[in-house]
Write a structure and sequence with these properties.
By secondary structure, this protein is of the alpha/beta class. The protein has 2 domains: 4-185 and 260-381, Rossmann fold; 189-255, Alpha-Beta Plaits, CATH 3.30.70.3270. It is 28% helix and 19% strand. It is built from 13 helices and 16 strands. The strands form 5 sheets. The chain has an 8-stranded mixed beta sheet with strand order 4-3-2-7-14-15-1-16, with helices on both faces. It starts with a strand and ends in a 10-residue tail after the last strand.
Length: 391
């Protein structure tokens, strides 16, 4: 079985080699310049972070990547597509304002920001993949029409995929609104009657009018006798975006684990195939293993990281870099102040410790079966040269 190269830098720095210098060295050693055709419009797919979230990649650290693309002759732009849920990135106006508020401005990052799926999430290109779950994928037009693609992903845990790395950043993140709905369509949540207090928070946040408060059926469990109503999900309208799960103050809504989690992952991977169509040899992947939070950057907050900051990886193989990121994270001790800090003994599989029902390996297995890359990898530390005498 072939092994893919995954390059890695730690976060140690001094006056000779600061972290910005090390990022420049990392992408050079990992082969980024060779993946960027001259004058290529290059989509740098990144997550700008929901307003209130603090775990997303710092814009200052993106600048060396942009500079490397420019030096290679490319024409980079930072991009992401809109969300399904109600938040601060659901349309291009709010999304751009959020990106600016979180620091992604031209003077800092060195490239313009373009919302990939347009004003209202409908600017898309239908890319045929003819795979198990999807015949066509609906990719945000700025990504589909770009001539090269660089994924810059914040590696973290994710409540549906188990973890989010290069493939989630590209497969889910580069999909248009219709594409995201297609991926999430198997993920209808469920109401836990014993916990629902009919507060209506979920109704307010649902962007698809799929939730309502109705009279509680006779005999249904209730947290208090005085609560006569309960939230109800209209399956015909629900797109499975999961926003209601995260806003419920009573934790009365959760994922219906009887649904097809594997199907969701396979759709996400097939969308990665669609997003990379025509530029497999003009794509590059960078994972930041910093502030590894227990949930996605789509939330308006970020919980304490579960392990210490580890470093940054770069590779031409999206499967290998995600596998290496999981392996390195799982090899670390948990942080005492995190959601895993009180577990004794500390969990070997940190993803399952947070999301016990998610078979996170499946996205890697399926991606490898489709030829997206290899799970077997060689981790190559990038060491800056020592300071010369007399300097």
């Amino acid at each position: 079985m072939p092994r893919s190269a995954v390059y890695f830098i730690d976060l140690r720095a001094d006056d000779t080699w600061n972290l910005l210098d090390k990022i420049r060295l990392l992408v050079k050693e990992a082969g980024l310049p060779a993946r960027i055709p001259r004058k290529a419009l290059t989509a740098v797919k990144i997550h700008f972070g929901e307003r209130g979230n603090t775990a997303f990649i710092r814009p200052l650290l993106v600048r060396p990547i942009i500079d490397a693309i420019v030096e290679a002759g490319g024409r980079p732009f930072l991009t992401d597509a809109g969300t399904l849920y109600v938040g601060t990135r659901g349309n291009a106006v709010d999304h751009l304002l959020t990106a600016v508020r979180n620091g992604f401005v031209l003077d800092v990052v060195g490239a313009p920001v373009i919302i990939a799926d347009g004003l209202d999430g409908q600017d898309e290109v239908a890319v045929p993949v003819c795979l198990k779950r999807c015949q066509d994928t609906f990719i945000a037009s700025a990504v589909a029409r770009a001539e090269a693609l660089v994924s810059v992903a914040h590696f973290k845990l994710h409540e549906l995929a188990g973890f989010g790395g290069a493939m989630k950043n590209v497969g889910m993140g580069a999909a248009s609104r219709r594409g995201k709905m297609q991926q999430h369509s198997v993920m209808e949540p469920r109401i836990r009657a014993k916990k629902c207090v009919a507060c209506g928070t979920c109704v307010k946040v649902c962007a698809h009018d799929a939730l309502s408060l109705v009279e509680r059926p006779e005999g249904a469990a209730r947290p208090k006798d005085s609560i006569t109503k309960i939230a109800r999900i209209d399956a015909a309208k629900c797109v499975g975006c999961g926003s209601c799960i995260h806003v419920c103050p009573e934790e009365a809504i959760d994922i219906n684990w009887d649904k097809d989690i594997a199907g969701f992952m396979e759709r996400m991977v097939e969308y990665t195939v669609g997003a990379l169509y025509g530029k497999q040899d003009k794509s590059f992947f960078i994972n930041f293993l910093t502030q590894i939070s227990p949930a996605c950057d789509c939330h308006g907050s970020a919980d304490a990281p579960i392990v210490a900051d580890l470093g940054i990886m770069a590779s031409m193989d999206p499967v290998a870099i995600d596998q290496a990121s999981v392996d390195l994270m799982n090899a670390q001790p948990v942080l005492a102040g995190s959601c895993l800090g009180s577990m004794n003994p500390p969990p070997a599989d940190k993803i399952r410790a947070v999301y016990p029902n998610i078979p996170w390996e499946h996205q890697l297995e399926y991606a490898e079966s489709l030829g997206l890359g290899f799970r077997d990898y060689e981790l190559i530390p990038v060491k800056p040269p020592k300071k010369k005498k007399g300097r």
